[in-house]
Amino acid sequence: MSTTLQNLISEKDRQQFRDEGYFVLPGVVPAAHLAMMREVCGDFIKTYDAEMDAAGQTHQGINIKGSRYFIANRHKGTRLVEFIYSDLMAEICRATLGDNAYLFWEQFVVKGPEKGAKFSWHQDSAYVGTPHRPYITCWVTLDDVSEANGTVYLLPYSRAGTREVVPHKENPESHDIEGYFGSDPGDPVIVPAGSIACFSSTVLHRSGFNRTPNWRRVYLPQYSAEPLRRPDGKLVAFAEPFLINGVRRNGV
Fold this sequence. Notes:
Layout: H1 3-6, H2 11-20, E1 22-25, H3 31-55, E2 59-60, E3 63-64, E4 68-72, H4 80-84, H5 87-96, E5 101-111, E6 119-122, E7 136-141, E8 152-155, H6 157-160, E9 169-170, E10 177-178, E11 187-188, E12 196-200, E13 204-207, E14 216-224, E15 240-244, E16 247-248
Antiparallel strand pairs: 1-12, 2-3, 4-5, 5-14, 5-15, 6-13, 7-12, 7-14, 8-11, 8-13, 9-10, 15-16
């Protein structure tokens, strides 16, 4: 581990994560990894668009051509593993989860120009459906993000009034699940491409519309401190070992 990476996450960041559930690292993604993720994202979008064109459709599942794309758990056989299991992500996992980290989930979330939808206040843990130790989301910006293009807004624990998973209900119009109905707008993450917002799966967050003429692309690897299982013992998603008792198992 380089001295630069060892000092990347300050004690202030670590304390903020403990107290408020998140910290933000502006401009930390290596240029080569940023370019690679943009390329992989673009290739996936082309594939989805071609499939929709061939079927004479503008929708494929929850993906809408030119508007929004959720491209989940497609890292195997791609160069995404170079980033997922990089020194940078190992340091983030150590700072937030400790000596054990497993890849739990990964996805691109893309908002098209002047079309990308908003997302309601929610906690990622609300999607798991079984009691679990909180995991972390690494919200990696592939483009500069702002309030204009639909960045994420985070609600610190101290203002949310809780660090526990709260009841969520489905919005009948958007079908999003919602877990906060107060007036606090949250703190917008306004950072350049190649930045990472690291937040606990119990942090309430939302995002706005993309009102700009440009794409807003984000990559989201998520890591857990242990395999997350359903009551029947089956895995909720992935449980690919990354760090085990402080030792690298992937990305060596």
